[in-house]
Each structure stands twice: as C-alpha cells, then as structure tokens.
Amino acid sequence: MITAEQNEYLCRTGPGTPMGNLFRRYWIPALMSSELPGPDCDPVRVSLLSERLIAFKDSDGKIGMMDEFCAHRGVSLWFGRNEEGGLRCPYHGWKYNTTGQCIEVPSEPASSGFCQKIKLKSYPCVELGGVVWTYMGPPEEQPEIPAFEWTQVAPEQRYLSKRWQESNYLQAVEGGIDSSHVSFLHSGDLHRDPLHRGTEGSKYARSTSTTFDIHESTAGLLIGARRPAEPGFHYWRVTQWMMPFYTLIPPYKGNALNGHAWVPMDDNNCMAWTMTFHPTRPLTPAELEAMENGAGVHPTLIPGTFRPTANIDNDYLMDREAQRKKIHYSGIKGIAIQDSSLQESMGAIADRSRENLVSTDNAIIMARMRMRKAAKALEAGKGTPPGLEPETQKVRSASFILPEDGPFKETALDASVVRMGEPFVAV
Description:
This protein is an alpha+beta fold. It is about 20% helix and about 25% strand. The longest helix has 18 residues, at about 360-380. The two termini are about 35 Å apart.
C-alpha cells in the first residue's frame, strides 16, 4: 500500500510534475510512421504527457511536432493546410515550419520582422523501427536514440499496434509486470489463442502456484516468476521492465517475442503500444493475419481509430456464457482487452491507498519504489535516470525449465542478452 500523496506523485505526468519531468528525459513513442505516410500528408493530433501537440511531415519529408494551437487566436492546427514547406492555419494564414517557427503572417509586411517573434513550442523527432519518437525534455540532456531490439530488426520481422486505454499509465505498467495474473485472467486463451496454444510454456503457465525472484537491472527490473513443471523441475518466466514504461513479455517457443510501451496521453488515458518481433525470421502470413484479427496480445480496433472494438461503452463485449464455460476466464475475449477491461475498471486513477498487497505483488512494489527514487533524484539534481543508455535497453525476455535447485539468476541473465540474429530462449 502507498499513501494518497505517493499515488499522486507517481500518476501525474503533466508539465512541471516530478514524474512528468522524469518521463521527458526519455525518447517517447509518439505515433506510427504510417500515420505520417509522406511529404505534405495530413497533420495528426498527438496527446503526450498532458500536452496537446500536432505532428506533420513537410514538403521535404521532415517531421515536426509542435503545440497544436496557432499563436494568433488559438485555432487547432489540425485544420491546417500542409503545403510548401509548412503548416498554414486556415483561419488567417499564419504558417509554421517543423521547428514551430512562424514563417509567414500574410497580414503583416515581411519587413516588419513580426514572424521572427512568433514561435510555437516544438520537440525534435526521429523515425526508428516504424515509430516516430519525440524528445520533450531539456535540449542539453537529449539522450541517444533508442536501441530496443525490436527497433533494430527488419520491417518484415516486426508488427506494431497501439490502442487507447482509458486509464492512467501506471495501472497498465503494473499489469504488464504482474506475471501471476496470467494463470487466472488469460488461462482460457493459453490453450485457445493461435499464438499461444500447443506450447509447453502455455501448459505450465496455467499453474496458479507462482513464486517470484526479482532483481534490479540497469534499466529497471528483471522479474522471474516460477511455477511447477515436471517433477523435480521449475518453469520460469522472465519479464523485463525498463524505465519508464516498457515491458517485455515472456515468450512461448516457436512464436515471436512481444513487448509493450504504456505511454501517458494525459493523467486519465494512455496509449498502449504492442510490439511483436522475431530476431531470426520474418513474421509468417498466418501470424500477421492472427494479430490483425486480435490474436496474441493485439486488439481489434474501431476502423479509423485506435479505440478497441471492445471498450467500456459496450462492456468490452462481455460474454457470461463464455465466462461460465471458462472459454474466457473473465468473459472477455482477447488478451489485450482482458487486461485493459480490468485495469480501466479501477477508475481513471486507481486508489492505491486502499490496496492489500501480497508476495506476488513484489515486482509492483519494487517498480513503484524505483520510479519514485528516480524522480526524486532528478528533482535533487543527482545522477542520470536509468534506462537512457542504449546498452541498457538491449535485453530480452525469456522462459525456460530448470531443476528445482538450478541457478535462476545466472540463467536469466544469460538468456536476457540480446545476440542479434540469434534465437531467444523459450519453452
């Protein structure tokens, strides 16, 4: 349990908040590259850390990420004309380049120099791994670009999706590092979902007897969840949590690796990114079709939006008969929506002062402590936030079988090493 004040500290990520200042020190996934398909394409609204921004790609293909609203009368530049090297407000024709600099005010003579005095807040962007990333922190502290393994593989080895989750980011992060709920909430899907069924791991993961072994890593936490396997052996699932909002999900043999990024849009909403990738081969047509249809950890979406088809307004398409028959343990179809439905049910911001935590929540407790410690260190001007260096991001999740007296930590650390182009460790 944490206090209401500590909960507020962790959950608020807007400008000037301790956690907001911490998050702004990282490159943040802002939108998919496909949302800005080419020069002079349609501008896109982006909500990040309680800031309303607009993204566009100019005539030369350069990406801009800036304040959504025109400096003249506050009109949303989503209505703007993206043309001839800038985004023009349709109200009175003020035009901005990708740095947010006003470059034309038709009503004023160029000789007045008025344009040079007008500049919208803007943030640098890079394209990497099918994602447009932005950095919202102090320019002098800008870190190297991300080096997560999924950003380094060929496009045909990677599939990305994202969905709007109507809750604070922290509920989603905590769900991502809570391996014990798999045995309950996802138990029906472990032997029915096409990207899980038939593996040894999916059989062992249904055991509700879970013991944790958790270690700090340079970027966050290495989380081991142990379940019984065959007599004399344990089945281990290794989850990676990396600051500030990334998780890598333990894999199942024969399938691809999966990860999440839980990016705050504002304090009541987050964008849940899902990255599926394979380090040694292209994803198959069958895998791609399954993911596009909501299998694995991906959702189906309302066309033209990032809102899930199953959402709070339709009770997530709850099927009580499927619940009774344990086809879907909670009655909700799909691993992604099973998670979001329960996390959203806690309210926009969960009241953690009312919790009663147990031993299987140790990873959540440690993650909260690590995040608060990092934010307080930044407030005090001490050190660099964890997980900024590219080398700290080069880790894998894993699953394996060990004898009951087998060395978990040593095995997990070795299995976590990214060896580009080589198979990962999975059962």
